[in-house]
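LOG
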Amino acid sequence: MTTSPTSSGTTRTRAVDELADLVRPALRALSRAAPRIVLGVAAVLTLLAGSALVGAALDDRAIAANEAVAQAQVLDGSTFLRTLVQFTAADGQAHTPELGVFYPRGLEAGATVAVEYDVTNPDLVRVAGRTFWSGTLPLGLGVVVVWALALPYSWWLRHRH
């Protein structure tokens, strides 16, 4: 491999120099676009939070349209992302919704809790008395925090030079 001397007297390979020449313009462009990228990520997170609320409202509407109430047992194996329950539906069959119960805050394995479910789709089940409004405060605060961080960071990136 051939080397070429640099102004500091050290040597670098020609391949590294060529690679650096190729990468530098992309890094400059990325640096110039960084404020917009930060704001874009914040916008995507805001849309995801809004979509989550809309989805929860639609699920609640489906449950309310064909609502039935049952007692459910909170199962072991629940995680932060889903709380598993098992209940007996009006048709006499035991159901354990794969996605878990909606609005599970405060449930512990072994507890018995009243649930509301959609008779036509027993996989749509929520803790009785809880609705999508339960998620508006945490998601709203999350969106506020995202923008409270993204706006000043984007401004700093834009004005750092």
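LOG (cont.) second protein
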Amino acid sequence: MELDHLAILRDELAAFHRGLSQDLTVPVRHCGDWNLRDLAEHLGQGNQWAAVAVRERHGRHQPPPAPADVAPWFAETAQLLTETLAADPATEAWTFAPPHTVGFWRRRRCLETLVHRWDAQHAVGIASRLDPVLCGDGIAEVIEVFVPRQVKRGRMAQPQGAVRFTATDLGTSWTLGPGEAVATLTATAEELMLALWNRRPMPWEQLTGDADAARRILRGPLVP
């Protein structure tokens, strides 16, 4: 199934914005010492940065701090981003990994917003559902984009072996690392993606194969 990342991004940005009617001082558990307002500023600045990456084709933009009234400002950044990404997805853009196109940013900002929407709703105690197909795309993105980037930037060692991730609700598998998988981690797509983004523990109890080797391969950090 081909995902309409731009349509999903619009929905995810709107859902995050609705959450800004909550207490903005609530801590966001998986984002260091940030509160909900800090998370909104981070996501909104990322919207601005990605828009400049498309419009001006560079990654040097330093977004200014958000104003005190963060909710309407966030809505403006969301509109700026979605209007920018309405261009043909094949349009050339600056990106930090291939492909160097608008399509990269549609996917990247969609998945970034998905994770942070989950962060925000989790912080205020709202039950949150993540689409399995979109989570599967998020698993693939970690393996295709972020692991190579982490290795290239010296943040983690090149994996010396492979681990397979199998999503029970999709019947789909992805392999992280070279060669035949030494172990398989099996869970729902949501559980696997959130584990890869350090939002949930890795489902080690559902691992088959060489557990010690799998832990070494996944030591990471796999994501920034």
